Each structure stands twice: as structure tokens, then as C-alpha cells.
Amino acid sequence: MAEPDYDKLREMIARCQWTFAKTMPWAPHEYIVRGKCPLADEGFVYFVNMQREHGVKEHWGKYFHPYLYIDDSKYWTMGAPIEETIIINRAKVANK
Questions:
Q1: Is the per-residue pLDDT at 45 higher than 70?
Q2: What is the mean pLDDT of the chain?
Q3: How many Cα atoms are found within 13 Å in the side-chain-facing hemisphere of 2?
Q4: Can you give the pLDDT at residue 95?
Q5: Is 96's pLDDT higher than 70?
Q6: Count of other CB atoms within 10 angstroms of residue 72
Q7: What is the mean pLDDT of residues 44-71?
Q8: Phi, psi of 64 (to 5 degrees)
Q9: Is the four-CA dihedral 47, 1, 96, 60 of positive or negative sign?
Q10: Beta bridge partners of 57
Q11: Are 66 and 52 contacting, i.e. CB atoms less than 8 angstroms apart?
Q12: What are phi and psi for residue 7, nearest 5 degrees?
């Protein structure tokens, strides 16, 4: 797969209104929902593909996900097949 177009990803990130995940206050993060954010489906799929292909694999609890680092945040999905993936998560990172 091609290298991520970080300018394109930043533009996509800026267009979305990210929702704080209030059900997980011990793990502060935000998310967007496919079909409910301003990204066209192709854009959502592009973002998920870049996260999965170019993310850094890390553990979080029992999970092992690729995290795509962009500026001061990291982005991830839960690993369902692309056609079933409806959430992109993000969390702030310190000193990245």
C-alpha cells in the first residue's frame, strides 16, 4: 500500500467533530463514527487502511493494535474487517 498522505489525513481529522468516550473515563479518548462524520465512505476507508498498514503495533490491555501517530495523537480501530469497522478512535500522546 502507498505511504500515508499526512496532509490529507490532517485535513480529514480537522473536518470531524470527535466525541469524548465518556463510558471509559479511565482511558480518555475520542472517536468518530462511520456515516455520522463528514468523511465520505472512501475517506473513512482510506484512514482505516493507513492506520492498519502503517500503524505501530502496540499492546493495550489484552489487545494488540496498530496505532497511527499523527502530530500529538494516535489513531486506532478495534480490528474488525473493514466493511464492519465503524469507529476510529484517537487519544492524545505525550512527547511524541
A1: yes
A2: 94
A3: 5
A4: 63
A5: no
A6: 12
A7: 94
A8: -135, 100
A9: positive
A10: 66
A11: yes
A12: -65, -45
Cα–Cα distance between 73 and 47 in angstroms, integer?
Answer: 14
pLDDT band at 1 (very low <50, low <70, confident <90, very high): low
- 10-39 per-position pLDDT tens digit: 999 999 999 999 988 888 999 999 999 999
Question: Which residue type is seen at 25?
Answer: P
Q: Can you tell me whether residue 28 is helix, strand or coil?
A: coil
Residue 82: strand, helix, or coil: helix
Q: What is the pTM of this model?
A: 0.92
Strand order of the β-sheet with 30-33 is: 19-20, 30-33, 87-92, 73-76, 63-70, 56-60
Residue boundaries of the structural domains of the chain = 6-92
DSSP E strand stretches across the chain: 19-20, 30-33, 56-60, 63-70, 73-76, 87-92
DSSP 3: P
Cell digits for 62? 489484552
**Would you state the cell numbers that stand for residue 48, as one nine-digit string?**
482505516
